[in-house]
Amino acid sequence: MKGDELLELKNKIKRVAIYLRKSRNKDGEETEETLAKHRKRLLDIAHKNNWQYEIFQEVGSSMDELRPEYQKMINKLTDGMFDAVLSVNLARVTRDDAETPKFMNLLRQDDILFVTDSERIYDLEVQEDWQALKFTGFVNNWEYENIKAQLRKGKKDSAKMGRWSNGTPNYGYIYNRSERKLEIDEEKAKAVKLAFQMTIDGIGADNIAVKLNKLGYRTNNGKFFHGQSIVRMIRSEIYKGWIVANRLKGRNKTNGKIRPQDQWIVVKDAVKPCIIDEDTWDKANKALDKRKLLNPRAKMRKHGLSSLIVCGFCGRTHSVTIRTDRNNMRVIQSCRKRNPLGEKCINGGIQYNTMMELIINNIRMKKDQIQLELEKLKDENETIDATAIEIQSIEQQIKKVEKALQMLQLQLEEDLISLNDFKERRTIRSIELDNLQKELTKLKETTKEDKIKRKESFIEYLDHFLDNWSELDESQLNNELMSFINKIIWYHPIDNKEYREIKIDWAE
């Protein structure tokens, strides 16, 4: 590219999207140091050329398929907010054969330049630049897939040899990088041993978490332990010295799909010494299985208020129990949630029937409120529905703009206008069309007639429910309530027995 051509392209650039993502070192590890170097280099380029910029930096894994910053950047590119994308190379932006052409097409369609850290500017409307960037993308993707395959193979081989390759080690272990093996963190191991013993003794995971928190223990991230983190600890084979690899498809531990068990790589006695002996591990896991089978929540029958009553102080869903000591009377239980230090929530309970009375009274008041709103709406003096006239006018404008866009396309195909003129006029018309459609949607949602219909329909629905709710079985009652109520927020502090209140979040 000639100097004057390069200068002309640079002058076109006013605002750039800087995209950053972690790279990997020779050992396949993601490095913050490399990321910092990339960031400095790209910022230096932007400052040197007096380009305004916005940084889009992925903070998670560079192999993570969910790239929120990338999606955010794409949306802003589509909205015409940037003249160019500035990145180390194409491989830092796209990393598979399907994504690369989509990204390049977007740049070409919206006349957006691509700039690398060598200050090479690609104008994708120029065929030579298109082919050059396409080729580099192909090479980068090939290299990336090759690296991924090597990393996967290396990980499997390491597991088979009993080496740790599963990232950050589990709580209670530290990673000896030079010898590529796990070693015991003696202080944290005390918490692990205590958790296993308490599980064997029949203590629940939530209470174990509270105990560890009170003793001053914290997770590897410095946070409080919770019941689920204790369950994950007890279930992890690493504590009895086993390394299990290739269990999940993908890197996401939460959403990754579990492979068939025959595909797992299981290496017994891989970690020596280990924190828990195999017999202790088996006993703790059997105790955990037993508690799961005996869990009263799992056996609890569905009732009319299932999943609806929410604590106003901590947000936990209140459960319903049967008091055998009170002639099988049903009650909404006091909130039993404890904070990480074991302090109990202050919200009290209430008789089930009393709660139903409160709910029914609130439904009646809601119906009366909507009835008043409906009467007020109907009493509004409007001989002519101005909104309907406005809707008709906008619909006509939309048809005109759509026709104008079609004509523009025909003019381009017949070489009656230049490509630059086409893009400029299309952008103006597209913005106009988008604004008209948004305005139309808003008007249609707020017409007087629609408001009246919605309110009349809701009143009719509530009337029918109020007439028939007492005849419904528990499952039907729950389904009906959940059709127009999102949640019922309950306030009844134990230190103020006179105060009780519900607030209903309506799904109107």
The number of helical runs is 15
- Whole-number total of structural domains: 3
Global shape:
flat
> On the 0-100 scale, what is the average pLDDT?
81
What percentage of the residues does DSSP assign to strands (E)?
Answer: 5-15%
Helix content: 40-55%
The fold-level CATH name of the largest domain is: Rossmann fold
| CATH architecture descriptor text of the largest domain | 3-Layer(aba) Sandwich
| Beta strands, count | 17
Strand count, sense and barrel status of the largest sheet are: 5 strands, mixed
N-end to C-end Cα span: 62 Å
Topology:
Elements: H1 3-12, E1 15-20, H2 32-48, E2 52-57, H3 68-78, E3 84-86, H4 99-109, E4 113-115, E5 121-122, H5 127-160, E6 173-176, E7 181-184, H6 186-200, H7 205-214, H8 227-235, E8 243-245, E9 248-249, E10 257-258, E11 265-267, H9 278-294, H10 296-299, E12 309-311, E13 320-323, E14 329-332, E15 350-351, H11 352-379, H12 386-413, H13 419-445, H14 448-468, H15 474-484, E16 485-491, E17 501-506
Parallel strand pairs: 1-2, 1-3, 3-4, 12-16
Antiparallel strand pairs: 4-5, 6-7, 8-11, 9-10, 13-14, 14-15, 16-17
Written account of the structure:
By secondary structure, the protein is an alpha/beta fold. It folds into 3 domains: 3-155, Rossmann fold (3-Layer(aba) Sandwich); 173-296, Hect, E3 ligase catalytic domain fold, CATH 3.90.1750.20; 301-385 and 447-508, no CATH class. It has 15 helices and 17 strands. Strands 2-1-3-4-5 form a 5-stranded mixed β-sheet, with helices on both faces. A 3-stranded mixed β-sheet has the order 12-16-17. A 3-stranded antiparallel β-sheet has the order 13-14-15. Strand 13 and strand 14 (329-332) form a beta hairpin. The longest helix has 34 residues, at 127-160.
